[in-house]
Amino acid sequence: MSKSVKSTKVKGGDKRLEQIGDDIWKNRTTKINNELFTMTYGSIVGQICREENYNYNKVNEILFNMGYNIGNRLIEEFLSISLIERCNNFKETAEVISKIGFRMFLNISPIISNWSIDEQTFQLTFEENPLAEFVELPDEYDEEEENNSSSNIKGNARGELWYSNILCGVLKGCLEMVQLECEVWFVSDVLRGDDNTSIKVKLISILRDEIPVGDD
Asked: Closest Cα to residue 182, out of 160, 204, 151?
């Protein structure tokens, strides 16, 4: 028998958010094999790279748009399972993203840091990234052509590809569906030789539901 769960008011930094995230992950989500998940995503990225002739800027764009479309739909599942009420400010939003959102879907809780003075921009740093396990990006992509001819260099993945860019799109799509227009982008990735993997989230504006002409 399922338990009745009341909606939860958010308090930034409250340990309750971690407890909610843990409870949702343990009791209210469908688990999939981590290795299968990682390999499936890797296959998708690889296929896009081949289709776009290793134009990594285009690949980044496609991954972002894929994530954006996923985020537009994923937010409904998030809200229906978490029963979280509307956040009072952007700091509370960041706490919910880290402690419940990422915990619910990826079983991780990125660290929140580097708040801007106006509290409109923050950074998420990942101690682990399930999408990137077992992954190593080459400095260059070499395609072996037939008849042992010279290789054709197609670009520098470590310098150009944001392998997990789908996460930025998901965040953008989810936030937009709750009336928060944000810019979301990777600032570092261990796959590219950086010390850590981090995403920036910047609030641009709070969107308002438009009332049709003639309605009160």
From this structure: 204
pLDDT tens by residue, the chain, 216 residues: 333 334 445 544 466 777 666 656 556 555 555 677 788 999 999 999 999 999 999 999 999 999 999 999 999 988 888 878 888 899 999 999 999 899 888 889 999 999 999 999 999 999 999 999 889 988 765 454 333 334 454 678 999 999 999 999 999 999 999 999 999 999 999 999 999 999 999 999 998 765 445 544
**Predicted TM-score (pTM) above 0.70:** yes
Paired tokens of 73:
């739909």
Asked if residue 196 lies in contact with residue 126, where contact means CB atoms within 8 angstroms, the answer is yes
Burial of 58 (0-12, 13-18, 19+ CB in 10 A): middle
Structure-derived torsion over alpha carbons of residues 1, 21, 181, 204, reported in degrees to the nearest 10: 160
Enter the tokens of residue 96: 């919910």
Domain residue extents for the chain = 15-24+31-134+154-206
The architecture that CATH gives domain 15-24+31-134+154-206 is 2-Layer Sandwich (3.30)
Q: Give the long-range contacts of residues 56-59, CB within 8 A, separation 24 or more.
A: 56/155, 56/156, 56/157, 56/160, 56/161, 57/160, 59/161
**β-sheet bridge partners, residue 198:** 125, 188
